[in-house]
Each structure stands twice: as C-alpha cells, then as structure tokens.
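Morning run. Coffee first, then this:
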Amino acid sequence: MRRASTTIISDGVPITIDVRNAVKIYDDYSRFIREWRKPERQAARLEREGYIRGKSGIADLFWQFPLYAFLYYFTYLYLESNLWLFIFAVGFYLYTVYLAGLLFCPEQGGRLRRLGYGLVYWLGPAVSLTWLQLRWDNIIVVLVFGALWYLAAAVRRTSLKLYREKIEITRITGRFRRTRKAFYRFVKLIPLIGKRKVPFKALNQLSVTIGSGMFGLIGPNGAGKTTLMRIICGILSSSQGKVTINGIDLSEKREELQSLIGYLPQEFGTYDNMTAYQFLDYQAMLKGLWDNDRRRATVERAIGAVHLEANRHNKIRSFSGGMKQRVGIAQTLLHLPRILVVDEPTAGLDPRERIRFRNLLSELARDRVVIFSTHIIEDVSSSCNRLAVLDKGKTRFVGTPQKMVQLTRGYVWQANVAPDKFESMRKTAKIVHHMRDGDSIRIRLLAEKQPLPEAIEVTPTLEDSYLWLSEKEEN
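And here it is:
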C-alpha cells in the first residue's frame, strides 16, 4: 500500500504503454520440464525447417543401452532392501516404457508397433511382480502391489487417451456410459499420472504501443484481449516479453505503477443493497481515504464524472446495466487513475445506454489513457483514436480507424442477385451481409476484383476491414 501511494510519474508527463514481444501461456509446464524437453523441441523445429532429417528409434536408443543395463543390474541383482527393490522396479518399468515409446512410436506406427508397445506396457508389471514374488515369497503383498500398479498403469493410459483425443466426458454415449464417465472423471482427479496440463498460448509475440486517448482492442473470442489487459494492469505476468510504462518495467515496479491504473473487468461485483454513494464511500475507505472531508470530495467528484448525481441515493439493485457500469467506472476513478482499462464495457447494454457509456469514456480519455475491448465495431469507429485487431494472440493491425478502413478501399462491392444465385454464391463468396430487396437479394461482399458484372464498388466501413483481415488470415 505504501508503494502504491508513491508518485512514480509526474502529473504533467504523457503516459505511453509499450508492450514488446509479450507471450502468455496458461497452464504451462514447470521450468524443469520445459528445460528437459528443449532439445526435443529444437530438433522438431529443425526437422520442420528441413535442416535435419528425422532419426530412427534405434539411433535414439543406442546411447541409452548401457544406462538401461546398469539400471537392470542395480535393481534386480544388487539391491537387497525390499522397499528399495520395489521403488526401483517401478522406476525400471517406467524407463522401459519410455524406451519402448521411442522404439515403437505407437502414435505414428502401424498395428504391429502399437501391439509391441502394448505388450511392453501391460506385461512389464507382471514380469517385475513375478520377480518380487520370488524374492519376497509373500503372495498377498505382491497381489496388493500388483493391483495398485495395474490401476496406476490403467489411469495413465486412459489419461493419455483423454487428452490426446480431446474426449468430452459429458458427450460420451453408448453402453456403460455412466461407468465410463465416472472412471474418466476419477482419472482426471489423480495428480501426476491422471491430471495433465494442457498449455494454451493466449499471447504470441505480441507488440503494441499505446498512448494518450482512446485505444480499442477488437477481435474474436479467445484472441487474447482480456489477457493483454490484465498483463497491462499487473494482474497477470507475461511468460515472456516486457511491458513498460514510460520506460519503467512493470514487472519491477508493479506496486508503484498500479497506482496509475484503474481496471473495470467485464463482470464485477457490487453491493446491491447499498446506494451508489454508500458503495463508493465504502470503496474509498478501503483505498485508505480516512479523512471525512477528503473522502466526501473524492466520492462527489467520481459521481459527477460519471453523471450519477441524480441517482446517488438510489440503491444499486434498481440501476440498469449501463448505470451499474458507470458505478464501476466511478469506483476506478476514486484514486484518479491516469490509465483506465475497461473490458467489454458495452456488452449487454441497449443502444441508448451504449452511446452514453461510450461518450463517458471519450470524456475521460481527454486527459488519460483509456483502453477498452469490445465486439461492437461501431464503438471503436466512433470513439477511438487508435485500435488494434487481435487474433490468436497476435496483432493483425495497429493504427487509426481511418487507416484500417483504407485497407479495403476498392475491395467492397454491392449487387442485387436472384435468390438461386445467392444460394450458390454464399458458399464461396465473402458476403458481409444481405437483405431482401423485392424479388432479388441485395448483397454486400468482399473481393479483390469485381465479382459480378452488375456489382458496384461502395465505400468501405470499419466492419468491412475487420472481416477482410479475418478472412485474409484464415486463407
């Protein structure tokens, strides 16, 4: 709290946010596993680029034969302790399965290779348990260990199948589906051998510079908009890359820089039984404003900034969606942030409320940086100085709305076609929208050349440019 109350950037200095090569991977592997698999990833990359040819399984196994022979001798001939013998027997089995995977390559090979790998996988525990029985001469203990061993093997095998084939447990049908669903859920609860990490790269070498004014982020669901905003706010840390504010590294001065930032997520909580004034007064106290006069002035200023003077003493439960969004904005304005980050602020609002809220953000952007994401292209075109189009964690475009519109100049066409011709065109043409016009259908479509003799070129819009970038990326 003391660090957050410090002044790290003077009031008169313009704010510039610089994101460089940001990478964010959710549910990533541990650092040890990443380093362990680095040679394998490098070899795969070099093979894809044509620098090396794929190696055979025997070549990969050759240097490991001496280690395998020593582990066999140490486990089954040298050890005398029964406990250590069992532990190393399990380790020897896991190493055998690993080498069998390199040799047979069951995921890429045919039926014989999968059969060979399956024999090693399922007969390995039986061979080890037979040896343990000869050493221990205790059939009960061996059977208990054997049951646990085979259960663990079945869990691991099932887990690999679930994650490799991306099986949706809730959509399983057929005989014994309830039993299979219960077992699959049980498998995903077991750590190490059952539950597995599935890394997802939300941002992929993303770079963007954001200055004063309104900056919009647009893109499909899963494009990385919310992840980028949370990294800028310091809520998340990037896996790679750097975020600086006026040259100050956010990872090094996170607490000090957070005093400049106000964040309004898409879904935020309020106390509906409180009035707007009571809620903001309570939030101001949580921010350390204990002096009554100073806190009252701060709350009044925030209420006035979002135009809630007439409803300050009404309970929040009676507010519309747009008014609740304004309460959220007022909450972020209590500490006068110079950077305001708003995630999907107009989602679910009616047109009138959307326009009011958009105008409010434009007013706030006069002396601060406002970053907001949206799916509504009209909100960006009418209020943003600059914007970025995100897709699959990368930037497809960064610049002004006017410059983005120019990308499709000469590529937007309009024509009236017969219904039967429209049905054949909709499968191949990039149609933006269509509507019935008498006996024909009026279509607006994207094409590099005149798609129809009767098609005429029309003025592009920001929505046309956004769809053009999306279609271009898919192709």
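The chain has 18 helices and 14 strands. Good start to the day.
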